[in-house]
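Please produce the structure of this protein holding FE2/S2 (inorganic) cluster.
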Amino acid sequence: MSLRKTTVFLNGVKRNIICDPEKDTLATAIRRMGLTGTKVGCGVGQCGSCSIILNGEIVRSCTRRMKNIAENSQIETIEGIGTASNLHPLQQAFMTYGSVQCGFCSPGFIMSAKALLDQNVNPTREEVRAWFQKHRNVCRCTGYKPIVDAVMAAAKVLRGEAIMEDIAFKMEGNQVYGTALPRPTALAKVTGLCDYGDDLKYKMPEDTLHLAIVQPRVSSHAKILNIDTAQAEAMTGVVKVVTAKDIKGLNRVIVPLDHPRSIMKGLERPLLADKKIFRYGDVVAVVVAETEEQAREAAKMVKVEIEPLPEYMNVLDAVAPDAIRIHEETPNTYLKQPVLKGALASDVIDESFCAVEGSFYSSREAHLSVEGDTMQGYWDEDGNLVIQCKSQAIGFNRLGIAYGIGIDPEKLRIIENPTGASFGWAASPGSFALMGACLMEIKDRPLTLTMSYEEHMHFSGKRAPAYSNARLACDEKGKLTALEFDVAMDRGPYTEYSGHIMEKVMRFMGWPYNIPNVTGLGRIAFTNHCFATAYRGFGCLQAYTTSEAIMDMLAEKMGMDPFEFRYQNIARDGQTNINGYPFKEYPMEEIMDTLRPIYQGALAKAKAESTDTVKRGVGIAMGGFNVTLGPGDHAEVALELNPDGTITHYNTWEDQGQGGDIGTLSVTHEALKPLGLTADQIRLCMNDSHRCPDTGIAAGSRSHFMAGYATIDAANKLMNAMRKPEGTFRTYSEMAAEDIPTKYLGVYDTTGTGTPLDPNTGVGDPTQAYMYGAFLAEVEVNVETGKAMCVGMTSVGDVGKIGNILAVEGQAYGGLSHSISFALKTNYDDLKKGSTMAGAGIPYCQEIPDKFDNIFLENPRKVGPFGSSGCSELYQSSGHVAVINAIYNAVGVRIYELPATPEKIKAGLEAKARGEDLKPKKYFLGSDLYDEIEEINTNPV
Ligand code: FES
Ligand code: FES
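Below is the modeled complex.
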């Protein structure tokens, strides 16, 4: 290797960089200097997280080789523009305006915005958006609008029209709950000081070893005949090549499946592939070496001999009569769940005044967090195997991997690193298990693993695609009479979270309407595409793809406005959902009454602004989601009084960027109000399995609800212990003097609070709380190119009392921006395109509207901490169908199979000109719906 010394002015200071000019990128060089505020997400120039200013120009430093960096170049990074005690206006504004969620993109955006404001201190919003578009700055969390808000606010300060105090949060009194207090981790994120996993890699002890995965990517379904590691093991620097035969435990990643209709139990996924490759991204070995480069070179030399098997890349092929079994022990369709309400839907539909039918496809969506998968591992001083990673489910993931790698779960410690988002994929224990398996082999040195973004894309789970057939009918007044549906979901080759997703589909189809007769079936099948895992909007989104589209179709056939058609069919007091139970609340009328004038205004505007080439349209969709995992959900937290009078809150409310930190702070401050603490007297100790009680998975929109109640419990216990007979509170010294414990566990458990869905009928009421909403999309469609753009999104949501405005708004902007991209472009069906962020369809700034309004009704809940409910998943429930419905409203083309690409819209327009509708034929999902219903009725479980 030939090295070069390059002298640069780094943040104004003359520094020498020693590097390999051919191999090292500017990003690598800067980060090796300790300036890890510059992040690397995609690593290939698509995301802008590595943006820095080079000689006055914004550049993506991951694509600049050091050989192209001139001597005496001026380099500005996030560390050079402001510090925690002397923030740049952009840094302050990003904190105040909710522009920081996971924060992984923030340094890149701030540097990019600084370069813009250096040139033009008075940009318009559209100029800011165009700048971020041009410079490829991607944020997957915020939906961009809060970032543009922050840039506009900071620009005012830079122009001298405002001062820093004007753009800082001002606390009124001592109120935290219900305010827009910025999240505690925001300061570290905007100053580049937050150490994500790949930053920690540079800060590990000197003897740290590096891992590289062997992901052959030669087949999606094959028998493994031989894995030859000899050549790799002989290479310089290689310490070990770990394969399945080295694994001490079961070599299985365990995510239990206990649905009575499944013979699969969630034990089928190998940690390292042993007998078969089940999908393209399976890993057969992990190389452990002295350097990352040595590990990667050796990984290329591991030889895998295979015998190809038929590959079933979608559920329709996997359930075809001639398909072979993907797992020997079960047919490819391994789980079925009916929903039966009232009379048989087919009988009612046949006699109804009006009916429509359709077949729909929800595509395979990648989460596309800007940070990929990265982690560290070591054995701690107490003999625990420690994995520092992005876990979204610390307690659950511990159990998920301990038996697989062969360790007592009590000796497995999982710590969540600061996390550049996941939106669900990090609920899956698979990659953490790889680290665990290597640590079982290497006990005397720490390890670190950074997957490339491409490796991560093929390794991580995705949203389950779903094919559905449905019919919907109404009477002559437009009152719904019956719904019939049959949905088949593709979970890839592993069952992960199958029972949970099935439940969601079977609850949110046709929600929140009054439908007296429903016959439905959910099926889940194995395929050889990527396995499916958690993703915001889990399961409900596939249901809405069907029911909110067919609702529009029926309204049209009846000659009714889709808004008013829905209005007369939304459930009113006492009316029941498709599972036979009343809704918990009935805010549907209020939501629609709030939205109606906006809808009417949008329709008029769309009509006025449509041209011959660009047609505008408006679409709506009703949405909602439940809160908690249902009966048996459990959360624990602990509160401890410290000697200095502060309180430490211990929990595992995993923070993936959604705001576990501000959520914890807000509920704690509110629960301890009688103590009169200020926000900074509450300390957070979070997300370490051996220091914090298990608060449960950060999913199912459950965290605020479950941790909130557990916090109230802990706070009451602590305050009761501190309370003196006259009502004042003991100090720490007084507690110590009286030998009163100062740390209390708070618990909330939902056992006995709900009824699981009956596996024979779908009747049930699993959760205590819900969120409700409606979404209005405004789109424009270019009839020449077929390209659709969402130019406006409005939501009216009822999530109960809001605990933190920035966090809830953040989920609304973020969830809806995912909905928009799900409707129009995100898709991992094509493995080649799916290798990269851009190829898989991540939306850039100008693809998400700046006209983005969220209206919150805040009806306090009777059940829910401080009147709150959940939040997150409401906002990624049905917004995508609002976009699809708006496209139809604009040009009369219905997109049945997502995403609505320009090619599909164009083909639809051409078909329409010929008087045709490109409607898919009814899908064959493995058997006849009513045969299956009869079989289930005859053989109940
Ligand atoms: S553009 Fe450099 S890391 Fe993505
Ligand atoms: S805050 Fe932008 S990617 Fe997470």
